Amino acid sequence: MRHYVVCDLDDCLIKTDLLYEQWLVLLKSKPLVFLQSPFWLVKGRSYFKFKLSQHAPISPNLLPYREEVVQFLKTSKTDKNNQLVLASASPETWVKDISLHTGLFESALGSSQESNLKGAAKYKAIRSSIGENTFTYIGDHTADLEIWKHSSKVVAVNPSVSLRSKIALLAKPTDIITDKKRSTWNLTVKQIRPHQWIKNVLVFLPAFAGHKLVSADNIQNGLLAFAGFSFAASFVYVLNDLLDLKADRNHHTKKRRPFASGDLPIKWGLLLLPSLLAGCGTMAALLPTDFAIWISVYLILNLAYSLYLKQSVVVDIIILSMMYTLRIFAGSAATSVPISEWLLSFSTLFFFSLACVKRYTEIIRSKNKITLDGRGYRQVDYSMVQSLGVGSGLISILIILLYLQSNDVRALYNNPQNLWFATPVLLFWISRVWILTNRDEIHDDPVVFAVKDKISWICLGLLGLIFGIAT
């Protein structure tokens, strides 16, 4: 007698939930249709899924498969009496696409426009497909208990303590499949990227450059601005990673990010977003209104970048460099210290150079691809991006040299001539960064590289010493 091994899909065979994932794909690819999508629910969940599948096709080759379940299925397939079936509440077209891609299953069952295959409805569809034959069911959710009641064997994937106890009451042969899940807390910390908060030190730059950082009020407001931008930056990282799952999974390093790898549930990310935004709003409420305006501009610009602008050649680099400069504007608003035109000119060109480092690195590390995933660049663009980055970096040093000849420098420094020694240090650092970038020996993010690089810290110490002597 033939035996069937029936496997669930979402959070079981794959380490993600396709409904949430493809809904986010819809937001990025067809925002106007996305706005219509809540109204699909009026006609029921099955209709919602059907419409979503029409507008958001999946890429089965890029999904994060659970290796432990795949291995179990491969072992089951070696028994010629076993027939493998993929059964899911996801839309039928998605389920069939994944079944075809894996090559493991003889048949696939999914939700249609009229029916949502979950719980009892899924069992009915399974029984209709396999007849009176016995079956093993691989699932992960309490909704699967209705199916396990009728199965000859239970296979539970990462069951909770509560689900384990309910499975035990069924008194059936049971296998438990667990993967090496990392702590949700550790994954959340990794996702919000606190190491990137070092960029927010830029909010102190207007007060530091204007020699007004000694004020207690400026320090307090600077710290609040730092916290506000830390919440905002983490919000942006979470949002960007949720919207960029496909491109990240096709990237040599980004595929290991918590959402892309499937280690952190997408639903958790959707809960993180309002929490981080609330933290950002709280900090902004404690500071002058102008700060709230600048941080709002930062968030809106990042949303536009995530949805559209990152695919535009050079525009994306300009936007990335602006993210740094916006922190300086926000710091000025928080501390009420005006920004020097010299500082603004230098930062615009300097951070444009660093943004070019980031993009150049991504291009040269995609050597086997004609175009860069999720970007508008081609392999042939690497030399032009390099030229733009090196040129803007060197011109930013020229701004420093011109500043040394201005009247502004004499008003702030007792020994302004000593500031000249800062230029060879900056020339060394920016030149070294680009040489290492050309050798492909630098981190994707130049700021992360600088934080971990001992020579960069030595350069920073020298600059601090030079500015101290000049003062």
TrEMBL record:
The keyword Protease does not apply. It is a multi-pass membrane protein. InterPro entries: HAD-like_sf, HAD_sf, Prenyltransferase, UbiA_prenyltransferase, UbiA_sf. It comes from the Bacteria. GO terms for biological process: glycolipid biosynthetic process. Its main location: membrane. The keyword Transmembrane helix applies. Keywords: Cell membrane, Membrane, Transmembrane, Transmembrane helix. It is found in: Membrane. Coiled coil: none annotated. GO terms for molecular function: transferase activity, transferring alkyl or aryl (other than methyl) groups. One of its GO terms (cellular component) is plasma membrane. The chain crosses the membrane at residues 223-243, 264-285, 291-308, 313-330, 342-361, 382-405, 417-435, 455-470. This is Uncharacterized protein. The lineage of its organism: Bacteria, Pseudomonadati, Bdellovibrionota, Bdellovibrionia, Bdellovibrionales.
